[in-house]
Amino acid sequence: MRTAMIETAIRMELYRNGPCALRALIERLPQFSWNEVFAVVDRISREGTLVLRRRAQFDYEVSDRPILEPSRERRTAVGEGVPR
Q1: Which structural domain range is residue 56 located in?
Q2: 80 is a domain residue
Q3: Contact 27, 65 (CB under 8 A)
Q4: Which residues are CB-neighbours of 31 under 8 A, at least 6 positions away?
Q5: pLDDT tens-digit map of 18-73
Q6: Which residues are paired to 60 by β-bridges?
Q7: Mean pLDDT lowest among 11-20, 60-69, 75-84
Q8: What is the spatial distance between Cα 46 and Cα 40, in angstroms, rounded to a whole number?
Q9: CATH code, 56
Q10: According to the model, what pLDDT value does residue 66 have?
Q11: CA gap 4, 59 in Å, rounded
Q12: pTM above 0.85?
């Protein structure tokens, strides 16, 4: 149950403020420990619903999973974007 609360808090923080450094996210959620926030970020990034990018040697950026445009194969299959 606490994990669900942490996940909700992370998602709300990202929704309100957009992508941010992992360190900043942890600082914005002082009601949870560093370990708790990191464990949830790790889990949901592995599920593919959150993006964790390495920005520098010891710095990571956390963001919601971007909405991807249809693949080129899909566009070609339905006749979009086909050169004429």
Answers
A1: 2-64
A2: no
A3: no
A4: 9
A5: 999 999 999 999 999 999 999 999 999 999 999 988 888 778 899 986 645 455 44
A6: 54
A7: 75-84
A8: 10
A9: 1.10.10.10
A10: 61
A11: 25
A12: no
Residue 84 to residues 9, 39, 73, 79, Cα–Cα distance (Å): 49, 50, 16, 10
Rounded distance between C-alpha atoms, residue 40 and residue 32, angstroms = 11
**pLDDT at residue number 28:** 96
The reply to whether 50 falls in a domain is: yes
Q: Is the residue at 29 inside a domain? A: yes
Question: With helix as H, strand as E and coil as C, how does the chain read?
Answer: CHHHHHHHHHHHHHHHHCCEEHHHHHHHCCCCCHHHHHHHHHHHHHHCCEEEEEEECCEEEEEECCCCCCCHHHHHHCCCCCCC
Alpha carbons 53 and 43: distance in angstroms, whole number:
14
